[in-house]
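Because discrete structure vocabularies remain unfamiliar, we reproduce here a specimen of the format, pairing a chain with its fold in token form:
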Amino acid sequence: MDLLATFRPGLAQLEIGVQSTNIQTIHEIDRVMDFDMVTQKVQRVASAENIHQHLDLIAGLPYENLESFKKSFNDVYRLRPQQFQLGFLKVLKGSKMHEKAGEYGIVYHTRPMYEVLSTNWLTYDEVIHLKGIEEMVEVYYNSCQFRCTMLALEAEFDTPFAMYEALAEYYEENGLNGLKHSRMGRFDILHDFILSYVKKEHAPKYEDDLLMDLYLREKSKSRPSWAADLSGYKSEIQEFFRKEAEEKRYLKDYEGYSWKQILNMTHVEVDSKGKWTLFDYKRRDPLTKDAKTYRILEGKTLQELAIYSVQDPNQPWSGSAADIVVSKDGRFVYSSNRGQSNIAVWKVLESGLLDSVAYVPCGGKGPRGLNISPDGRELLCANNDDGSVTVLPLDQGTGIPGAVAASFPVPCAACVRTI
């Protein structure tokens, strides 16, 4: 694992055949797997952000009915591999599945690819249903072109499976299956699907996500009909690129190009709240191929929105804020308070303002530096006064740090970083 972390980003790909997380199914197909261990390993590899991971499931295995497959789907999906393949059992001659096809009630194609049609646990209609979901996963997950939108959209559904199931049903109900859709067409369909599920006031937020996904891959020559008209920002955007051509504050790889050329080679998007995002297509993520982005404040002045105290009102006033970090998903903010030796927790509201959630003991004395673990599940705190670094698990629902899980002696600890 340590060796893998040293690989150049994009050099290697890991293919992990999970197949199922149903213990009885795993035993029946003569495999040994501890999914908790698989989860730990996958998350550890993912934390290095340098290796493409491909995980798969197989529908039609013994003892896996639709409800069991849904659980397997949700278990694996939440690991967020770069590729998530849904396969269907192939009943090959000489295999255990072929030998026990009668016992398992497996009905399958007698010609290549010898794919399952039904089993004792999965009906033909359910297999066809899963085929539709497989298509949606290929288009909206494995293409890596809708990552921001699909991640946000999960909040509207009980489970990831339910989200893709609803999307597959939308395609079926609207006669969209079997047609050739353009890239822009897929965005339009997802846009209309979202509008059928969310409250009207939430639509602009999802349209921002869709536009982010659209421009992360390429500078689109056309703009969706539902996207805001940016003509009102034309002079401001041009002025930004005039200055950028001279100062190179963001775009370091465009030496020798005029501002007009740089404008045509990159993109600036202004979202529904007036925030600017610059897309740099010369620099891309080696795993997702997404353009590098920069949040810019062009032509605007910073404005004070609110002031928040890190002091726990139920304790004597003491000390001051030392550090501040934001959770990996952007939902929570944490600040250390040296005097009270606690950590203030706020929830980020849709307005961008904060709502106080809790004040939690840091597990040491005089907390200064904070950091979030790469997987977003732990908060690390450098305690200067007692010379320790404490590790606190983060509740993924409430964002509140739990009791100290580990503590390490570090004299005069002031800063903590992950490498």
The radius of gyration is 25 Å. Residues 156 and 198 are 7 Å apart (CA to CA). The chain has twelve helices and 16 strands. The longest helix spans residues 124-142.
